[in-house]
Amino acid sequence: MSKQYAYYPGCSAMGSSIEYDISTRALCKSLGVELVDIPDWNCCGSTPAHASDHLLSASLVARNLAIAESMDVEGIITPCPSCLKNLKTTSLRMQRKDFHEKVESIVERPVRADLPIRSVLQTVVEHCSPQSIAEHVSKPLKSLKVVPYYGCIMNRPPDVMTFDDPENPTSLDRLMGALGAEVLPFPHKVDCCGASLGLVRRELVTRLSGRILDAAASLGADAIVTACPMCQLNLDLRQNQINRANGTQHSMPIFYYTQLAGLALGQSESCLRMDKLCVSPAKALQQVGAPAQEERAR
Amino acid sequence: MNIGVFVCHCGSNIAGTVDTEKVAEAARSFPDVAFSTDTMYACSEPGQAGIIDAIKEYGLDGIVVASCTPRMHEATFRKTLERAGLNKYLFEMANIREHVSWIGKDKEANTNKATELVKMAVAKLRNNTELHAGEFEINKRVMVIGGGVAGIQAALDCADGGLEVILVERESSIGGKMAKLDKTFPTVDCSSCILGPRMVDVAQHPNITLYAMSEVESVNGFVGNFDVSIRKKATYVDWEACTGCGQCMEKCPSKKAEDHFNEGVGTTTAINIPFPQAIPKKAVINANACIMLSKGKCGACAKLCPTQAIRFEQQDEVVQEQVGAIIAATGYDLFDHTLYGEYGGGRYPDVITSIQYERLLSASGPTGGHIKRPSDGKEPRNVVFIQCVGSRDPSVNRPYCSGFCCMYTAKQAILTKDHIPDSQSHVFYMDIRSPGKLYDEFTRRAMEEYGARYIRGRVSTIQPRNGHYVVKGADTIMGTQVEVEADLVVLAVGAEASKGAGELAEKLRISYDGYGFFMEGHPKLKPVETNTAGVYLAGSCQGPKDIPSSVAQGSAAASKVQSLFSKDKLASDPQVSSVAMQRCVGCAKCESTCPFGAIEMTEFRGMPKASVVETVCQGCGVCAVTCPQGAIQLQHFTDNQILAEVNALCPY
Amino acid sequence: MPTSSTTDRFDSNFLKEVQEGSEQNLTRCYQCGNCTAGCPLSFAYDIPVNRIMRMLQAGEKHAVLSSKAIWLCASCETCTTRCPNEIDVARIMDVLRHMARREGLVAEPPVRHMWDAFLNSVEKYGRVFEAGMMANFVRRTGRFWTDADLAPVALGKGKLGLRPHGIKHPDEVQRIFARFREQL
């Protein structure tokens, strides 16, 4: 049975992470998670807002909450961890009456702030068990070695995000495993890639992101799979910058988990906009469908 | 009645915010008050002499002292009355310190409240009657629960003093945590070498009966006369016949059983004697791992046992014992470090606990005393110790300091250098807590002589990298982040209450704190007593403790039992319920509500009547408020006495 | 280093403001250093985060608000997640940035310019217009070379739209900004 969710794509879906948005919609459709866009949604303000003022940040979020509350939906879902953290934090802080009143006076709309808010990832893994997803797989990701990279705020702070383990989340591992991929244990799952400082302090970002690429490569991963548009953009678009700064030669494709899931469930590479990835995924994608490693070794 | 009232200043404790002179003056107008005065320290020698003089001079036959809580000095003043020849129950105490002066600053309001409390005490006293204690016999046997070092010490001290001791141990051998340790701080002497002989003493002592693999099922009765049920768990081996030869272990085909004694470092056989010095040295079958017990075939041990001791059909057995006193010495458990996801949450094989490290260091341990990494058996070069894992951490509900981890970590750093001379230890610590004799000197030695590098800061995360671990911490004194590459990481896990501590406390009717540690009678003055007469504490069940403190408490608890047993009879408390036969209708509601089973139904001229077993009654008063006829009255707290207090306070 | 006078420099109002703004009790910090130990950007900080916490306890307003560290914090929540005393350190860092702005003590102006450029874009269109924001940031800082190497790639992949994806009612968002400024 399908359930309707108010969908909050986030600004990057309009540009830098358009393939995440497209593949998210495709995955949700095939799993029976029905998305209804929040009409005329606005930017949540992201880090620039909460780092400038908590009331401004909450007010930008609250307009979206108010619109979603007028829809007949189970809750709000978003693919972007940064949007998610802002939505959830605001909803939580608005439980305090004085803050609630202040926000409402700025938004000039009644806001209940009582809808459940989840990531698309959480919704997918809670909606479909890994077993039931495995049953839908038509093209298993066999012999593709991936490291799951959740980013720093998909599960943290745990009191706000209330999803998966804050130190060793496993939802993405389980999902990728169900799709047939070989999931390598990745100690840097929740490390920060520094994306938010990309424009201003590139040398910090190349250092932090470089470590993540180095670790993935040293484990022998064919690809990194992520659920965060900022992590993806940072590791993918900046990979050349990172290589130059650190003297490395990584050519590590950075997939959205929705792209790999779509692939395993039978959608085409072009549908999933694999062409949007900066580091070519061609070699990694050749692995998919290639004979499993044991067989290759023989 | 001629009542005397004494209003205590308690120095400035009371007089600072209560006009004691005015209270004493007001009391003079209360009915039956023949004498009233204020006094500097009523409990002091001259204070008590003043009370005795007044009793004699004014012919007083009832006394009210308005001072502190009765928990502090009721017993003191009752003795004063007895010295003056009065019955000690013709005494009342008004608490004008904890209930008045310490909680309010308004002197006028305080003075009024103190006056009212005195008025109530006088009203009750006018209804008091003389009460006389009975006597009952004491059973001079003692049960010690827990056979760790504290319980062993308590059992041996009691037994050496001529008492019969029942020692109950949950595991198959006594020895507790100390038996698992390699060496002890700050002397670095061999733990089993100093504990072993004491364990043998327990086994050989004619006054000690040891129940291993046993747990206390229920406790009934009262000080001097406890009835205890003890569950002897099935061992599937007849211990009368078993000689502890160990042949069964050599041939047991099930070798993947969890090795509790070695803290999960390696595995063991389904039939097992946990360690060579075990007391009793008897085999036990782990039913989960035994092929015969789980699948119904095998029986290798039964075939080759030279004394035919194997009993696959054995069941638990419950035995009864009668004792006069109980010492709880149930010890502690170690914090479950898997709650720290950032330290791997148990996923990293070479991130181990400090007690697991003890087993690696121990010559009788699974590696024969060679430090080997669990993952690949290699000898580590760089060992990192992380302190305060599950101590001083409110986020895991362990805000307290476990007290001994700083010391055992210093010891382990020293032993690491002894075992592997070219090794390097790093210790992450928050503060070094070493207040025992020669303790701080010991931690200094770890640094100065053994070269352990101490880093002041917590560790944020451990990440595996290329067969090693990168330990990311802070050096807060330098003000930097630090990374240390480690071959082995040892987590200094803290202490927590022993599993099942709460249930045992409820069986013993003693209190325990929010973490499950048993509550002592008084934090300073009654460290090994509890608030239940005849039940004593020793060792870490009361709070984390090192070996010297545990041993000291074991001896202290034993001496308390000796002094209890120095009398042949104990005085019973007359503040118990009694039934007015003519009013009792025999409804038995009191019988069903009594939490102590102190009420029996009897027959009087063919009619059912309730009757109180005075030695069992604890004076809680539940029966008195349950009785629809008002036929049961709690002596010293009768309806008349309590209503008199209410009337004094609310006359209209 | 100058001697810190606990009487002269201790600013209790500052401490109170930080505690109220962040809803955190700073006295809970016992200087274990876990926040610094896990901070991914500590290497770039002028003051490590545990020392920021200590300076807050000491009421060292000026030194804290003029630090670079508070601007380089990436809000990754590692400190908050691992603090044994359950202090929301990241939220405190947020509050310190808010206060530094008000006091005119921004030690890393480019970070502030980037955020302002981002928020300007949100105010104008209701959503972030990435190319517009970049241009705005370059104009504010004069850093013409900012990620110039990435622009062709991003453009080629269609990831950097040259037109804003505005919302239907940007005026609603503009009014949120306006009312927010009024109540400052």
Description of the structure:
The complex is a heterotrimer of chains A (298), B (652) and C (184). Chain A has 15 helices and eight strands. With 298 residues, chain A is α/β, with parallel strands linked by helices. Chain A has a four-stranded parallel β-sheet with strand order 2-1-3-4. A four-stranded parallel β-sheet of chain A has the order 6-5-7-8, with helices on both faces. In chain A, helix 1 packs across helix 13 (257-264), helix 3 packs across helix 4 and helix 3 packs across helix 5 (97-107). Chain A starts with a strand and ends with a helix. Residues 291-298 of chain A have low confidence and may be disordered. Chain B has 652 residues and is of the alpha/beta class. Helices cover 29% and strands 25% of the residues of chain B. In chain B, strand 32 (599-604) and strand 33 form a beta hairpin. In chain B, helix 2 runs parallel beside helix 6 and helix 7 packs across helix 8 (191-204). Chain B is globular, with a radius of gyration of 31 Å. Chain C is built from eleven helices and no strands. In chain C, helix 8 packs across helix 11 (170-182). The mean pLDDT of chain C is 93. The interface between A and C is large, with 61 and 58 residues.
User: For the CA atoms, what is the radius of gyration of chain A?
Assistant: 19 Å
Low-confidence stretches of chain B: none
Helix content of chain A: 40-55%
Largest sheet of chain A: 4 strands, parallel
Q: Helix count of chain B?
A: 19
Give a quick precis of the structure:
The complex is a heterotrimer of chains A (298), B (652) and C (184). With 298 residues, chain A is α/β, with parallel strands linked by helices.
Task: For the structure shown, list the relevant keywords.
heterotrimer, B: 652 residues, alpha/beta, 5-stranded parallel beta sheet, 19 helices, 34 strands, 25% strand, globular, C: 184 residues, mainly alpha, 11 helices, 0% strand
Topology:
The complex is a heterotrimer of chains A (298), B (652) and C (184).
Chain A: E1 3-7, H1 18-31, E2 33-37, H2 46-50, H3 54-69, E3 76-78, H4 81-93, H5 97-107, E4 117-119, H6 120-127, H7 130-136, E5 145-149, H8 158-161, H9 171-178, E6 182-183, H10 202-218, E7 223-226, H11 229-237, H12 239-246, E8 254-256, H13 257-264, H14 282-287, H15 293-297
Parallel strand pairs in A: 1-2, 1-3, 3-4, 5-6, 5-7, 7-8
Helix pairs in contact in A: 1-13, 3-4, 3-5, 7-9, 10-12, 11-12
Chain B: E1 3-8, H1 12-15, H2 20-27, E2 33-39, H3 45-58, E3 62-67, H4 70-83, E4 91-95, H5 97-101, H6 107-125, E5 135-137, E6 141-145, H7 149-160, E7 164-168, E8 183-184, E9 189-190, H8 191-204, E10 208-211, E11 214-222, E12 225-232, H9 247-251, E13 257-258, E14 267-268, E15 271-272, E16 284-285, H10 291-295, H11 300-304, E17 317-323, E18 325-328, E19 332-334, E20 351-353, H12 354-361, E21 382-389, H13 405-419, E22 424-429, H14 439-448, E23 453-456, E24 459-465, E25 468-475, E26 480-486, E27 488-493, E28 495-497, H15 501-508, E29 535-537, H16 547-565, E30 569-571, E31 577-579, H17 589-593, E32 599-604, E33 607-612, H18 622-626, E34 632-634, H19 639-649
Chain C: H1 12-22, H2 34-38, H3 49-57, H4 61-65, H5 69-72, H6 78-82, H7 89-103, H8 109-125, H9 130-141, H10 150-156, H11 170-182
